[in-house]
Amino acid sequence: MIRYIGFLFFLTLGLSYAWPASGQSITGRVTDAETGEPLPGASVFVPSIQSGAATGEDGRFRVVLPRPGSYRLVVSFVGYRSESRNVSVEEEAVEVEVDVAIEPIEVEVPGVTVTAKAQASDILSTPQAVAVLEGRELRENRGVTVFDALDKTAGVRTFTTGVGVAKPMIRGLTSQRVLVIQNGVRQEGQQWGDEHGPELDAFDVDRIEVLKGPASLLYGSDALGGVIHASSEELFDQTGPLNGAVSLQAMSNPELGAANLQLRGSSGENYYGGSLTWKRSASYETPQGFVPNTGLEEVNGSVRVGRRIGRGTVLAEYQRFDSNLGFFEPGEMQVNDKSGFSINLPFQSIEHDKVRARADLPLPQGRLEAGASWQQNRRKEFEEHEEVEELEDFGAETDREPALFLRLNTVTTDLRFHHRPLGRLFGTIGMSGFHQKNETLAEETLIPGADTWNGAAYVFEELSVRALTINGGLRFDVRRLEVDENEELGIEAQSKSYNAVSGALGLAWQPASSLSLAANVGQAWRAPALIELFGSGVHEGTIRFERGDPTLNPERSLSIDGTVRWLHPHIYVEANGYFNRIFDFIFLQQTGEVDPESGFFVFQYRQADARLWGAELTADLHPHPLEWLHFHITGDFTRANNLETMDPLPFTPPARLSLEASLTREALGRVGDFRLRFGPTLVAEQDRVNPFEEPTDGYSIWDASLSASIPAGGVTIEPLLAVDNLLDTAYLDHLSRFRRFGILGAGRSVRLQVVARF
């Protein structure tokens, strides 16, 4: 199969050179559907050719086409409903006229999606379940980590270790079963550990797109739960020699201070940008006291340079994430004593370097996207338990020898050809590969050294016929794992090979312009991680002794879901239902044994079939004619069972409903974009628990925030004042790793943020 897909790739690429280019175009006018007035500055985008135009003062646009065919236009404008039009351009036509009238809307709806499909699309014509968080909405909701901003997104939770480590959970699945993509590159660290959060700088992310459900076709194996795609601000959108932003953030709980500087600009065809972040926090506080040694320190940075070459672009990027994070050890809570900004033993140090290069080049009959990246993750754990002085300077741990030192090098390559419409069919043919080398460099050997190779080929196509969009594809993966000999773990040198076919089929039907019905069926897979196969030893961060099983099989997932979307100028409603059957689901089970040396319980990796199902709801309401009032509602529930024992899976999220009222004014004197938001998140009790878990009670948490935008000369200042857990509610978070020690969630926190854009 890989030869067949490779043959199609090069055949299509060859045809792209042979087919002559065209001088045809689509022209038209974008107007307000209610007043008929032209809309200058509206975006008219043709996803299949990754090209478009902005309307002029008279609302007119012109998009040049490469050849005849069927094209989809996506028209969008701030404050208006995005509109998609299918336009057929015959061979004899020179210019096709299309006038588009778009409706003003008062509700917030997901933006154009770029992750769910090979081509960008508006939300109503997207078969997959997608959530988008970007711009102001993202900046106002981020907390200690960038994933805190997703915690009120339907179907998405965060699996936490204190407030400094947050792992995204989609539809009850997390860690190895959720792919995190940053700027198009898989984030590869030691993500298998419960206390290992993805190494992303919260200030260097301008957009997060969540694709819910199996999504292995374009992004590779492991996406059984979904994909989180975090993107920095688009480099090639910059104008002028220099612009940027300064962001300052403070939180009372934990006592956090953070600062970020972003600079970007362009000169001719050259573009450049960079980001620098400093962050430091003390231990966090619950209504029962402080949780000692949960502080953190971060220094992160990135540099990007790019150049336009005709209608194509090339880009190079370097990112660095550098963090120290304390490990809490079970014991008595410190009710009146706070450890300040110190990080004591045990703690972990994470350094993550990433280099990325990308070229996006137009061809006569398509677009070629080529990318390569290298990243190195260095994770050190320092575990002496004697009294030590606190860390005085960032990086002071380098004077000590780590008990655990894991170094992971990953090289990835991607080659995608986005062919232009063949009749009404367009899509992507691609190949990808990666090589990973895992090294154990300290005395403690939790996992052996190993090399992993993975190669894949895939095809993903989409067909648009009037109100119906159908997409789907196939992917073939080959993976080989070479494990080094390790005497301490009793492991001989050996190799394992895996291969799998993944597939998906989805459709979206718009029986009316305001209504969309979508359905998907997909198959995905995941090879066992190194820790699951060969791990053996104390994992200080998770406070347990972990034991692998070298006979584990790959996980395979079969999922179906359905989505209903209804968009009215004053109402947006989206409802999803899903069913996911995972064969050979890998999980950790407490054995009842105790490791005599560490005193930790022994956990064994095991397998059984699993079933997850649930539903999600998102609604935005704007009661007309109260233009200043908005309501936002999200809710979800998940059921997850081990089908061998019929016990619930560990850390199954409880049902949740989030209600928020928003009072907005476009202008109050010199103050613009004024917004006051408040409301509760209601979390149900979780009494359907694994035998090794304790049930948790239901609770409600109220949050409130006040934000605005203030122009001051050439600078725009965006202040935010927020209070999280306004009533200082005491609660046990079922998705916190600390709950098994009876440690409550974070108490009241006042959050102040100021962003100055220039």
Describe this entry's structure for a reader.
Helix content is 4%, strand content 55%. The protein has 758 residues and is mainly beta. The protein has two domains: 2-102, Carboxypeptidase-like, regulatory domain (Immunoglobulin-like, Sandwich); 123-235 and 246-293 and 300-328 and 345-757, Maltoporin, Chain A, CATH 2.40.170. The chain has a 22-stranded antiparallel barrel. Strands 8-13-14-11-12 form a five-stranded mixed β-sheet. It starts with a helix and ends with a strand. 46% of the residues are buried.
Detail the topology: elements first, then pairings.
Blueprint: H1 2-18, E1 25-32, E2 43-46, E3 51-54, E4 60-64, E5 69-76, E6 83-89, E7 95-102, E8 129-134, H2 135-141, E9 156-161, E10 165-170, E11 178-182, E12 185-186, E13 207-212, H3 216-219, E14 226-231, E15 243-251, E16 256-267, E17 270-281, E18 285-286, E19 289-290, E20 296-309, E21 312-326, E22 347-363, E23 366-382, E24 404-422, E25 425-440, E26 450-465, E27 468-483, E28 494-512, E29 515-526, H4 530-534, E30 536-539, E31 544-547, E32 555-568, E33 571-594, E34 601-621, E35 629-642, E36 656-668, E37 671-683, E38 699-712, E39 715-724, E40 749-757
Parallel strand pairs: 1-7, 11-14, 31-34
Antiparallel strand pairs: 1-4, 2-3, 2-5, 5-6, 8-13, 9-10, 11-12, 13-14, 15-16, 15-40, 16-17, 17-20, 18-19, 20-21, 21-22, 22-23, 23-24, 24-25, 25-26, 26-27, 27-28, 28-29, 29-32, 30-31, 32-33, 33-34, 34-35, 35-36, 36-37, 37-38, 38-39, 39-40
